[in-house]
């Protein structure tokens, strides 16, 4: 049997369908799992993605030739039946289901299984072969319920506000920022967002996602608001001149990487909140099991650990060497540099 997805220099390729999934080089036809910059890159001829991702894809990639599919809607291309299914990662994120020659493969992109009001929940898709990420593919990564994390964030903000200090919560501008906004208590004070975050908020709201009212710092009339506000910005903005407007602010980073002691200290943050848009170890294991796949291919993250563990569970486990991973951080850095005047 012919593998439905193979690795090529341009990216992950479907030979019978003559298209790529999240290619890292320009190609003629690209199926995109979500709009983070390591999975959605400019330069390809035609793009196919889930309908809810259209706004953020166009905001990040500009003018592209884009076809969208509703979740669960199927098309056939060169004999390959293709459909997109919710991945629960960010707005519009999708798993790619491929059916051809008696085989079903699913390429998951990035995913999480925890509830998130800003995107459709992860949908397990039965398949023969499952391509999984492994960003947090180590047993130490186990997320607390969101309610507990947001209670900690709101308590930190309220305490800072009572002392006349701004609370600067740094997080990736696409996905994490909107998820953070969806969980904070807007009654504590005004919410200010960085210029890299605001256009993505608009795309989320246009897609029907409910977010609290936010302002740009240039829209603040009462300077006292700058001493009790919550600021949502990308990590690079916390070390930029843009931060001077908030005086003696307190800073925090929201990320799954805050699970590891020392990451907050090395980043120079006052606080670290464990909040991830990726599945933790139990989430990865439950998602893989729910597919029923007997063959699993692991991409970006803790690949050797995942492959070894899955093999010990009796699965046929292997890996693809991809260029997915940290580009969303660099994209936020670039966006922050371009929006520091906002």
TrEMBL record:
Q: Which UniProt keywords apply?
A: Exonuclease, Hydrolase, Ligase, Nuclease
Q: Where is the composition biased (Low complexity)?
A: 331-342
Q: What class of enzyme is it?
A: hydrolase
According to the UniProt record, where is the region Disordered? 321-342
Q: Which GO terms describe its molecular function?
A: exonuclease activity; ligase activity; RNA endonuclease activity
Instruction: Give the enzyme's EC designation.
Output: 3.1.-.-
Q: Kindly provide the name given to this protein in its UniProt entry.
A: Ligase-associated DNA damage response exonuclease
> From which organism does this entry originate?
Caenimonas sedimenti
């Amino acid at each position: 049997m012919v593998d439905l997805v193979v690795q090529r220099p341009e990216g992950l390729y479907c030979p019978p369908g003559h298209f790529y999934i999240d290619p890292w080089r320009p190609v003629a036809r690209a199926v995109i799992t979500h709009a983070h910059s390591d999975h959605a890159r400019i330069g390809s001829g035609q793009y196919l993605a889930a309908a809810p991702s259209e706004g953020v894809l166009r905001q990040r990639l500009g003018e592209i030739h884009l076809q969208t599919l509703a979740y669960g809607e199927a098309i056939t291309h060169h004999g390959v039946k293709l459909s997109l299914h919710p991945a629960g990662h960010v707005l519009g994120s999708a798993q790619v289901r491929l059916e051809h020659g008696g085989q079903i493969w699913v390429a998951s992109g990035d995913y999480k299984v925890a509830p998130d009001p800003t995107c459709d929940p992860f949908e397990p898709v039965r398949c023969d072969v499952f391509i999984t990420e492994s960003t947090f593919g180590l047993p130490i990564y186990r997320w607390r319920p969101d309610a507990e994390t947001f209670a900690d964030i709101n308590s930190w903000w309220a305490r800072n506000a009572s002392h006349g200090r701004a609370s600067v919560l740094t997080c990736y501008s696409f996905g994490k920022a909107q998820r953070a906004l969806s969980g904070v208590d807007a009654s504590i004070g005004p919410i200010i967002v960085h210029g890299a975050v605001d256009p993505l908020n608009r795309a989320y709201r246009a897609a029907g996602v409910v977010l609290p009212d936010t302002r740009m710092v240039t829209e603040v009339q009462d300077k006292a608001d700058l001493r009790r506000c919550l600021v949502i910005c990308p990590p690079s903005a916390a070390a930029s001149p843009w931060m001077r407007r908030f005086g003696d602010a307190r800073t925090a980073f929201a990320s799954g990487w805050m699970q590891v002691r020392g990451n907050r200290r090395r980043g120079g943050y006052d606080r670290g909140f464990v909040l991830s848009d990726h599945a933790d170890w139990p989430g990865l294991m439950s998602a893989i099991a729910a597919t029923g796949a007997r063959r699993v291919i692991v991409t970006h993250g803790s690949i050797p650990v995942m492959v070894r563990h899955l093999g010990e569970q009796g699965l046929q486990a292997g890996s693809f060497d991809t260029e997915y991973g940290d580009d969303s951080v660099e994209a936020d850095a670039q966006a922050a540099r371009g929006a520091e005047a906002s």
